Amino acid sequence: QGRMWAHTVGFTLLPHVGGFLGWFIYRREIPAWYEKLKKPAWCPSPKIFPLAWTVLYTGMGYASYLIWKDLGGCSHKAIVPLGLYGAQLALNWAWPFFFGAGNLKMAVLDILCLDCLVIGTMCSWYHLNKVATLLLVPYLAWLAMATCLTLHIWKDNPEARPGKSE
Questions:
Q1: How does DSSP classify residue 2?
Q2: In whole angstroms, what is the distance from residue 114 CA to residue 11 CA?
Q3: Is residue 40 situated within a structural domain?
Q4: According to its UniProt record, where is this protein located (predicted)?
């Protein structure tokens, strides 16, 4: 019982690690750079992002725990469902590094691949645990908005693209 509690907490907190690391590394650079970018009128306030990601990371982390538990831990049955989850988590964590470095093209490529992996993860989880799958729905919805926002920023800020002369 005590060990399951540790697994629950570990899986739930794991997604926060990369999110925190990305924030920590770029916490000074992104606000000044981001403020100067042309953004669509529907762009959320920068104050919303930390709250949204805290909720989303918690939900997806707990969902991954449910899948892990239902599949009996790290068994051969878990390779695809948790492998897809791990791959999407890696791309999720990579996005701030591209965006924070001002590489909007790579940020767009990353988030488009991320969208596909999250959909693949949800498809692989659906027959295993519907609650876990439903916990990813807000994440996918937020990613849809973030994808549109990243595409708009990339399209509307050609001067911010690497290789463009100032």
A1: H
A2: 20
A3: no
A4: Membrane
